[in-house]
Amino acid sequence: MSGSGSITIVEVVPHDPSWKEAYREEARKIIEVLGSEVLEIHHIGSTSIPGIYAKLIIDILAGARKIEDVDRYNDAMARIGYEAWGQYGLPGRRFFVKGVPRRTHNLHIFESSNTEITRHLDFRDYMIAHPGDARQYSELKKELAKKYEGDIEGYCDGKDAFVKDMERKAIEWAKNKR
To answer: Could you read off the pLDDT of 71-106 as tens digits, one per residue?
Structure first.
C-alpha cells in the first residue's frame, strides 16, 4: 500500500511496554514542529493496547485547530523524518508516515472536532477495558499475519469485520460511560 509496488511483509510481535515511551518521545517531536496547531495528541492502534500482538508501527492521532493549516508543516515534518501522504483515502485527514520503506510511525491528523478522533479513542479504550476481546483481536492478527505474510491488503481485509464489530461495541460502551 505504500505505492512503491514493493511487497509489504506483515509481521506482528508480542506487546512491548517500551512502545508507550516511544510514543511519548515521538509526540514531543511532533508537538515541537506543529506547536499550537495541535490541540490534542494520543497513542492509538494495537501498540497502545497492552498485551496484544501488533505490527511494529506506533500509531499517533492528533487533533488540529484547522486541518488545512497542517499542510503548511509538510517540510518541517519531513525534517523530523515524516513523509506527507495527504488525506490517503480519508477526507478530512492528513496522514504522515515515518520510516519509509520500513515504516515505524503513522501520524493521523484530523481537525479536533472530527468524529474520527472519538472513534479511534473509543476503540482503544474499549479494548483496554475488555481484555477478552483484545485477546481475540490479538489471536486474529497472529493468524492473519501468517496467512497473509506478504499481502498487507489481505491482512487488513481479514481484520475488517472483527474491527467493525468491536467499533460498534466500543461506541455503545463509550456512550453508556458518558
So the answer is: 999 999 999 999 999 999 999 999 999 998 889 999
Residue 54 Rama label (left phi>0; alpha psi -120 to 50; beta): beta
SS3 state at 1: coil
Flag whether pLDDT at 3 surpasses 50. no
Contact at 8 Å (CB) between 79 and 30? no
Domain count for the chain: 1
Residue 95 and residue 74 in contact, taking contact as beta carbons nearer than 8 Å: no
Assigned domain for 3 exists: no
Residue 17, preceding bond cis, omega within 30 degrees? no
Q: Is the peptide bond before 50 cis (omega within 30 degrees of 0)?
A: no
Q: What is the CATH number of the domain that holds 76?
A: 3.30.460.10
The candidate with the shortest Cα–Cα distance to 55, out of 95, 15, 89, 84, is: 15
The conformation of residue 37, written as its DSSP 8-state character, comes to G
Q: Is 2 part of any domain?
A: no
Say if CB 140 and CB 53 are below 8 A apart.
Answer: no
Q: For residues 71 and 86, is the Cβ–Cβ distance under 8 A? A: no
| Residues spanned by the domain of 113 | 12-177
